[in-house]
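Teaching assistant's notes for section 4

Start the section by putting this record on the projector. Ask students to predict, before seeing the second block, whether Outer membrane protein assembly factor BamA will look compact or extended. Collect guesses on the board.
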Amino acid sequence: MFPAILLFIIVFVTACSSTKYIADYQSIVKKVEIDSVPKEFEEEALNYIQKDIRPSSKIGINVLIYNMFNTKDGKYKTSNIKPLGTPPPILDSALVEISRNQIEKYLMSKGYFNAKVKSGIAVKDKRAEVSFKANPGTPFSVNKVEYDIPDQKIKELYLGNKDAFSHLKEGKRYDDDSLAYERDQIYQVMKQNGYFDFSRPYIKFTVDSNLNNSKANVKLIIDNPVDKPRHAQYDIGETNILIAPNADGFPDSMELNKRIYKGVRYTDLSKKFRRNPISRYNFLQEGERYDIRNESLTYDRMYELSVFKNVKIEYNRPKDSALVVNPVIQLIPQKIMSNRIEGEIPFNAGTVGFTLSNTYTNNNLFRGTEKFEFQIKGGLQSRLGQGTSIFKDIYQRDFSVSANLTVPRLMLPFISARPSRRGGMPRTIFSSSYVYGLQKNAFTRKVILTSVAYEFRESKSKIHTVTPLNFEYRFGNVLLDSLSSNGAFANNNNIVNLLLLDRKNVTFGVKYTFSLNAEKLLTNSSFIYFRGDIDLAGNLMQGLSRLFKTRVDTAGFRTIFGVQFNQYVRPEFDVRWYKSLGGDKQFVARINTGIGYAYGNSKETGIPFEKMFYAGGSSGVRAWQARTLGPGNYNRGESLVSEEVRKALFGFDQTGELHIETNFEYRYKLLNKFFGAKLKGAVFLDAGNIWNVSSGASETRFDFKKLGSQMALGAGTGFRYDVQYFVFRFDIGLKLKDPQFTGSDQWVISKFLGGGKAFRSAYDAANTPDRYRFVQYNFGIGMPF
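Reveal the predicted structure now:
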């Protein structure tokens, strides 16, 4: 704690000392105020103050970094300036005058035609305060709207559509933005109705503010083309789809395909793409009226195929006078195949390991833009501090191989699905994988997964994924027979989840997922994000087994091919509220909950192990390592009294059937330029836990009356290094309240602040080889949520 406080003091003092680097006649702007601007325009008015005279944050860490790298001999450098941090805002009267003028013009654009703004500067000890005081006057309202549109068809089209978009209405406050919006909407309406040559300069406005009572008349003018009596409407003619031979682009000359099919001439110079998968997403159809929305839709879908690095649509006109335009869609392919090797080193105070994966991708497997991915992944985890080499104490091994094929259309049997015009590209996803896990002297786990899913977009923000076929086959072994036979963990309800691994079972089920506003997650805007999914298994198998009277095993479970099938329901919801606080500041509140409930053929055995929930980790309650929190008030030292068993189960996942978690996070910018990227900060508060609902000891089962005593609480701070395409994240979580203890002992923050060493020593002695950590470090790529 002391080093952090010392660093804060150094940062604050150094940031406040920037005045020593400037000349005697210069001053640093410490405060800027705007007074008497109408409240609804205050925030926007601040944006018209020139950036170079806006004061830095009170802590001034951006200025600190700049001062560290861009001062020499007690002065600011004038050359060889490093792009790190932000320079202090040095007072410039010319910029003050520009800001005053811009604020005044901004108020006029909002209808305050008589607005006046005055500026003031006060300087003391090289520190300046700048003020702007406005006298906006009375806002002008629109008195009357007149139209000067000689083309009668254009006029009818505008008047017939304007009620759906127009902000230009009599009696409303005059606003330049309303006129600009009106111009853009008129342009869109015309381009959607065949007016290929229509452009924004045809649209003009005149404003007469020389009326009494602060009112203005507005006239809308839509000119005709020069020397023409009206605007022309165009239809779509023959479409050419051209694919370049490679990523270098098109040759100087080329021979086009002589065949035209359904109004499309398809020429693939690369010889890599079949016609139908590409032409399916051309929405510029011969004989239809030109509509810019179909052009935009064609652009979007061609890019979403993920095989073209450049898409360009141009139009040719026939030599005759026919009102027809012929689209030419030019597609330049990108690299089809790629191979990516990734690795990571997960570690904490008690373990260290690595994972390594190799992913091969082919974006055009069957010449129809089908994306194929094949991945092999493996990892090892070893204990630290056990008096032996980490290579001799590898306690966990993981291996998986998976293959996915994504087809850019809905492959539905007996149904010919039309290409999607709404939302985004529909997809059919075939997936298959094999997962193997081994924990030394504890268990082996093997899972085979196969599924078929359909993904489609209702709109840009609403995504549906339906998995009508989900097959899972699990088999494994518990390797603790010797310990079980001598009673070391026999009949211990706290490790009932381990026994889930010691059985064969098969799952036939369906899944459904819906997400809202997923495309906004990397923005700083205000919105609600929602993701909900439900996993339902076994009902069809149960019905068929009863109908055909399939075999029932000795334990009374119905089987298929001699293996018990699972029957359960598992819904999960993730709801988040993102609130923009201006600039790079944002507040996020989140609640994530889910439950797995086994019934029917699985009532006695529970849901599969992989369907259980866990708490902790870089996207959960961050003060705990992943899979080490809960369930409920579970305490490993009290439940697993034998050190032999604890060693055998070291690192075994702590899981539950119910999960409740909530997070609060405030995000802000630390440095705008930090080695070429933004460095952002965050402070957070996390709460949550997992529980059992159908089995386990009483301290691990959910009881609403015990909810307060069973919730874990952690807080912390973090950094996000934003390099545009990736966000590298580092979070430090501190335990505040730990539910594995009882009463006031749960508030472990008091132990951290005093007596932590003795507390840890006592805990470690009773829980060997587990160790207690007040602080948890989390590394990750991407935002936590």
